[in-house]
TrEMBL record:
<feature type="binding site">
    <location>
        <position position="280"/>
    </location>
    <ligand>
        <name>NAD(+)</name>
    </ligand>
</feature>
<feature type="binding site">
    <location>
        <position position="166"/>
    </location>
    <ligand>
        <name>NAD(+)</name>
    </ligand>
</feature>
<feature type="active site" description="N6-AMP-lysine intermediate">
    <location>
        <position position="111"/>
    </location>
</feature>
<comment type="function">
    <text>DNA ligase that catalyzes the formation of phosphodiester linkages between 5'-phosphoryl and 3'-hydroxyl groups in double-stranded DNA using NAD as a coenzyme and as the energy source for the reaction. It is essential for DNA replication and repair of damaged DNA.</text>
</comment>
<comment type="similarity">
    <text>Belongs to the NAD-dependent DNA ligase family. LigA subfamily.</text>
</comment>
<feature type="binding site">
    <location>
        <begin position="31"/>
        <end position="35"/>
    </location>
    <ligand>
        <name>NAD(+)</name>
    </ligand>
</feature>
<protein>
    <recommendedName>
        <fullName>DNA ligase</fullName>
    </recommendedName>
</protein>
<feature type="binding site">
    <location>
        <begin position="80"/>
        <end position="81"/>
    </location>
    <ligand>
        <name>NAD(+)</name>
    </ligand>
</feature>
<feature type="binding site">
    <location>
        <position position="304"/>
    </location>
    <ligand>
        <name>NAD(+)</name>
    </ligand>
</feature>
<feature type="binding site">
    <location>
        <position position="109"/>
    </location>
    <ligand>
        <name>NAD(+)</name>
    </ligand>
</feature>
<feature type="binding site">
    <location>
        <position position="132"/>
    </location>
    <ligand>
        <name>NAD(+)</name>
    </ligand>
</feature>
Length: 321
């Protein structure tokens, strides 16, 4: 097989898997397999830029917009995160950051395995909520998000702000949902991420309230009223938005890696699914300096956990909405 054919095959497979994952909420391959093929494609494309295809998944941000929902044009592009799968990969990213920024400081956060959301507050009131979609256009899911019990309809300050976060289904709520489905003769949801995505894209809003979705918020989209990521998270708490307490300040690779090791050990005992750790440059001015690629911030990276047995079982479970 020549290079062009290999690239074509990778693009076609990745696009089919993305359709199954984002549109059908029914993956047919492990995230690990998707990530490996994606990494191979990135390598081939960077060595042969003239062979980059327009339909390559490297040229767009993830999700596909479902029909049935109004489209929502985000005022800011909502980026995804670049992935690494080893300490070596992480160290390469850290070295790149250190070349641009003297003595950077980092915040390490858990990577919540749910559905990416952005919420729009005007004078403290929740006015819109949307999925990330392709980063530029998402789905307007305001009525569904209003039915997530931990999402404040009114912030504790009358400010106008756009916040990004993740909606997820806690493990207990996921087990309960699947038990109920079994009793009703319905097939099980594959995993909490698919169940959360399927729930938020329900046209019947009453279903959302019943299923017990929850949220964590982690970023201001657009200009931020604070100077560091740490301050943003503290401010969110003051506003009444839920933030994840499991975060860690780090000054170097050893400190980052020690948080990743702890997170890996604690992963199973957490009440929600995580698929990695996100490492972010703490200073927002330094984040601005590092900027973005077409798809990712340069100031953050996702370290993804290796696949586990539980994940392998996902694909053997039959799925319906
Ligand atoms: P991603 O899920 O790998 O990472 C980006 C997302 O992480 C952000 O958009 C945000 O929503 C989320 N996130 C969670 N916690 C966060 C935190 N603390 N800080 C910042 N962001 C946080 O990227 P993606 O573009 O949403 O999806 C791509 C991934 O989806 C692939 O790497 C693959 O694992 C999976 N996928 C799998 C298949 C399959 O068939 N199995 C197909 C397509 C995609």
């Amino acid at each position: 097989m020549n290079l062009q054919e290999e690239i074509k095959n990778l693009v076609e497979s990745l696009n089919q898997w993305a359709y199954e994952y984002y549109t059908l909420d029914k993956p047919s391959v492990l995230d690990f397999e998707y990530d490996q093929a994606y990494t191979r494609l990135v390598k081939l494309e960077s060595e042969n830029p003239s062979l980059i295809r327009e339909d390559s998944p490297t040229q767009r941000t993830g999700d596909v917009i479902l029909s049935g929902f109004e489209k929502f044009q985000h005022p800011f592009n909502l980026y995804s995160l670049a992935d690494v799968f080893s300490r070596e990969g992480l160290s390469e990213w850290e070295s790149r950051v250190c070349k641009a920024i003297p003595n950077p400081e980092y915040i390490c956060e858990l990577k919540i395995d749910g559905l990416s959301l952005s919420l729009y507050y005007e004078n403290g009131q929740l006015v819109n909520a949307a999925t990330r979609g392709d980063g530029s256009i998402g789905e307007n899911i305001t009525e569904n998000v209003k039915r997530i019990s931990d999402v404040p309809q009114t912030l504790k300050e009358k400010i106008s702000i756009v916040v990004r976060g993740e909606a997820y289904l806690p493990k207990k709520a996921f087990d309960k949902l699947n038990d109920e489905r079994e009793l009703q003769g319905l097939s099980a949801f594959a995993n909490p991420r698919n169940a959360a995505a399927g729930t938020l894209r329900q046209l019947d809003t009453s279903v959302v309230r019943k299923r017990g979705l929850a949220t964590f918020f982690y970023q201001v989209a657009g200009s931020s009223p604070k100077d560091t990521q740490e301050e943003v998270l503290e401010y969110f708490e003051e506003l009444g938005l839920v933030v994840n307490k499991e975060r860690h300040f780090a000054k170097n690779m050893d400190e980052i890696w020690s948080f990743i090791e702890q997170a890996t050990k604690r992963r199973e005992s957490l009440p929600y699914d995580i698929d990695g750790v996100v490492i972010k440059v703490n200073s927002l001015a330094e984040q601005d300096e590092l900027g973005f690629t077409v798809k990712y911030p340069r100031w953050a990276i996702a370290y993804k956990f290796p696949p586990d047995l539980a994940e392998t079982e996902i694909l053997s479970v039959e799925w319906t909405v």
